[in-house]
Amino acid sequence: MDKYNDVSPFVIIKSDVTRRSFIYTDRALGALDKSKHQYQQRVLIGSNGGENAAVPVSLLLRDGTSIIGTPSKTAKNPYVVDQIDGKLYLTDQGEIVEEVHYWYKPDYYDKFTSSGTPMWQVASARPQRLDIDPNSHCHFWNKGNGCKFCNINANSTQSEKECNMSKQLTAQDVYETVKEALKQPGAFTNLKMSSGSILSGAEIFDDEVDMYIEMLQAAGDNFKDKKFPSTIVASAFSEKQLARLYENTGLMTYTSDIEIPNEALFAWICKGKHNEVGYAEWKRRIIRAVDIFGAGNVSSGIVGGCEMAQPHGFTNEDDALKAVLEEAEDFASQGVSVVHCVWVPMHGSAFHNQQNPSLEYYVRLAKGLSDLRKKYLLNVDMDNYRKCGNHPDTDLDRGNLD
Ligand code: SF4
C-alpha cells in the first residue's frame, strides 16, 4: 500500500483476499443472520460454499466495493474473517486488516415462482444488479475442451445434487422473479445474463442467441420501454447474431470474454474456443460488437494472472503484464474495455493445482487496465463496483470520474 499509494487500499485488499482466499471463524459464521443476509446463490463459475453450508455469499468493504468469493478449504495461506467486539473483520495472521460486512439479501430472495422454484435460484443479487444465468452447462466441456481455469460444469452438477438446482431456467420463472425484484424500490439498476456456451444451431451459437432472446424478452416484459439497463456475458457472436439479439431484445450492453489475451496461451487454455472459433475471430467479433452497442458498451473479461499458468505460460511477471496490457490497449483503442477478475485456481477446474501471481502483479494489472479506460475515454458502467463488483480495475474507475 505504501508503494502504490495512488491505488485505493480497498482494491489492494480485495485483490489479495481473492488471490489468497479466506475462511471464516465459527464466531464470524455465527454472525450470519439468515433472515437478513445472502447465504445461497446461483453462480456459474466458482462455488457456493459446498455441502449446503450456510456461508455469506460475499463481503462488502467500507467503501462500498465487494469481495466476491466463498471460503476455500484448500487455500494454503488464507485470510480469516472473524467477529471481534461485535464487528466483522478480515484478519491476517491474527492482525486486523479491514472491517467487512455481509451482503444483505433482497426482498424477493425467499419467495417462490408459480412453478415452485425458489427465486434465489433464478436471480442472484449483486449489490445493485440482478444476475440471471439461464444455462449452467457449457458445451465446450462435452468434447473435453472446457477452459482450464473454469469449473462451470463441475459446479452446476454439484449445485444440482446439493440444492436440487436446475441447470436451465424457464422464461416464466425469469419473468416472475424480475417482476418481484422490481417491487423493491431502488434495489437494482441493471440486469445481467450469462450462460455456458451453447455451440448448436445452423451457425455455431445460434441456439445460444435464441436462448438469450427468449430470456431477455421474458425479463423485458416487465419494462415499459423496449430497452432496459442490461448486459450479457456470452459467447462471441457473429455480426448477424448480434444484430438479431439487439433488435429483438432490450439488451443495451455486451460482454464476451477473451479470457487470456494472448493467442498462443488462449489456444492452450481455452482450447475449445480456439478450435471452434479461434483467437483472432473471437477478438474480431468482440470489436465488431462496438458497431452495434457503441464504444464503452462492450467489454471483454480476462482471467487476470492465468497467463502465468505453467508449463506454457509466462514465467516472468513483467513480461506477462506487458503482453496483457498491450493486447488490452489494442481492444481499448477500438472501443472495448478489458476488465479482469483475479484468477483463483478453483476446485473442479483443470488448473486447481496452479499458483496465481503476486499481489503486486494484480495491483499493477488493475491500475493498468483502469488507466487504459481513462486514456481512451471508455466508460464501463455495466461492470462497475455496484453492478458487477468482481473487478479490481473497475473499482478503481471511480477515481476516473474526477
Ligand atoms: S466458455 Fe470457457 S469459461 Fe466460459 S463457461 Fe465454457 S469453459 Fe467456462
Describe the model.
With 402 residues, this protein is an alpha/beta fold. It folds into 2 domains: 9-102, no CATH class; 107-401, TIM Barrel, CATH 3.20.20.70. 33% of the residues lie in helices and 17% in strands. Strands 7-8-9-10-11-12-13 form a 7-stranded mixed beta sheet. A 6-stranded mixed beta sheet has the order 1-4-5-6-2-3. The protein is globular and about 60 Å long. The mean pLDDT is 92. The chain binds iron/sulfur cluster. Iron/sulfur cluster binds at residues 138, 140, 146-147, 150, 152, 196-197.
Order of helices and strands: HEHEEEEEEEHHEHEHEHHHEHEHH
Superfamily (CATH H level) name of the largest domain:
Aldolase class I
Q: Which class of the largest domain in CATH terms?
A: Alpha Beta
- What CATH architecture of the largest domain would you give? Alpha-Beta Barrel
The poorly predicted ranges are none
Going by helix content, strand content and strand pairing, the class is alpha/beta
In total, the number of domains comes to 2
Mean pLDDT: 92
Name the features.
402 residues, alpha/beta, TIM Barrel, 2 domains, six-stranded mixed sheet, 17% strand, globular, rSAM_sf
Describe the secondary-structure layout.
Layout: H1 9-20, E1 22-24, H2 26-30, E2 58-61, E3 66-68, E4 79-84, E5 87-92, E6 95-102, E7 124-126, E8 129-135, H3 152-163, H4 171-181, E9 190-195, H5 206-220, E10 230-233, H6 239-248, E11 253-255, H7 263-269, H8 271-276, H9 279-293, E12 298-304, H10 317-332, E13 336-342, H11 359-375, H12 392-396
Parallel strand pairs: 1-4, 8-9, 9-10, 10-11, 11-12, 12-13
Antiparallel strand pairs: 2-3, 2-6, 4-5, 5-6, 7-8
Helix pairs in contact: 1-11, 4-5, 5-6, 6-9, 10-11
The structure holds iron/sulfur cluster (SF4).
